[in-house]
Design a protein that fits this description.
Blueprint (H helix, E strand, L loop, with lengths): L1 E4 L5 E4 L9 H4 L6 E6 L4 H12 L3 E7 L18 E5 L12 E4 L6 H6 L1 H22 L2 E7 L26 H21 L3 E6 L2 E2 L10 H11 L3 E4 L5 E3 L1 E2 H13 L6 E3 L4 E3 H12 L5 E4 L14 H7 L7 H16 L6
Parallel strand pairs: 3-4, 3-6, 4-5, 6-7, 7-8, 8-13, 9-12, 10-15
Antiparallel strand pairs: 1-2, 11-14
Helix pairs in contact: 2-7, 4-5, 6-8, 6-10, 8-10
This protein binds nicotinamide-adenine-dinucleotide (NAD).
Amino acid sequence: MASKNSSNGDLQTTTKPPPLPSPLRFSKFFQSNMRILVTGGAGFIGSHLVDRLMENEKNEVIVADNYFTGSKDNLKKWIGHPRFELIRHDVTEPLLVEVDQIYHLACPASPIFYKYNPVKTIKTNVIGTLNMLGLAKRVGARILLTSTSEVYGDPLVHPQPESYWGNVNPIGVRSCYDEGKRVAETLMFDYHRQHGIEIRIARIFNTYGPRMNIDDGRVVSNFIAQALRGEPLTVQLPGTQTRSFCYVSDMVDGLIRLMEGENTGPINIGNPGEFTMLELAETVKELINPEVEIKKVENTPDDPRQRKPDITKAKELLGWEPKVKLRDGLPLMEEDFRLRLGVAKKN
Ligand SMILES: NC(=O)c1ccc[n+]([C@@H]2O[C@H](COP(=O)([O-])OP(=O)(O)OC[C@H]3O[C@@H](n4cnc5c(N)ncnc54)[C@H](O)[C@@H]3O)[C@@H](O)[C@H]2O)c1
């Protein structure tokens, strides 16, 4: 019997020892010694994670992605690299590969995409996570799930610690994502307790940076695209709702620390710096295009009023905290969006 303290304070007891990892992990002297699967690796966070993992010459990286919201373009610098492999694969189908670690990111993250086919979204979260856990069990791999701050729903506790169970609408238009991720977390812990699988759960808060889909309905990408096109910045009413934004390099650093560390999580990874939507619009306007106007528009149902991570656990258990400030991160994203939108910088 092995037991571990989960980060929300409950004692997690596993009834079985973890399955043995592949013998290759210990016997490959001339090859890379860590094979890592990244599901959803052609997406925004996934492709930055792949960049970081590939920097380590001991890593071999396999990406499995169905290109629903991701793109080969995000990985073009690695295609053809001997330590890299890209597979078109939908995680709702089983996948048989020999790996030591699985970063399970596959899932559309933006409301526009996850609401487009909610049944597929929940299947991706539930069946996709089951398939990846099955794989982890078969090959003895450690698996990390990218869960979300949406598991807290419209929180009644502020900021949100991992011990907070959330305030989630089970039948709303966002539930395919929120409840899907909650079930995915449950499956992770059930496999951990029942089969001894080594699990890691990251609860990701809003993340931004280059390679986000333009016009994906997420607020930072929307504002930057609107500012570059000279269109009004559309702030959803009332405008006082808050979000916190984590730059993608900080996020990737947190995910790798969690995977490499000893704690199952769930652990919040996000930037606690809190901004109202109006403040964000003002900052984008000031930094990118002072000539655009700010316009208030109707809100979408179940939009949470406040979101801010309590990152005490990440600091204590992972020695992690975000380094990039919003004012430094936005210009890095602006450069990437200018290139993709073909908008040159005015001198
Ligand atoms: N970006 C954020 O602010 C944020 C916040 C909270 C949680 N997350 C989580 O982080 C992960 C990555 O998010 P992202 O922002 O990079 O999103 P993204 O949409 O850019 O990336 C998701 C990737 O998963 C792929 N995918 C989707 N469904 C799939 C399926 N059924 N089979 C195989 N591949 C599939 C997509 O093609 C895409 O490449 C997601 O799990 C998301 O829920 C992100």
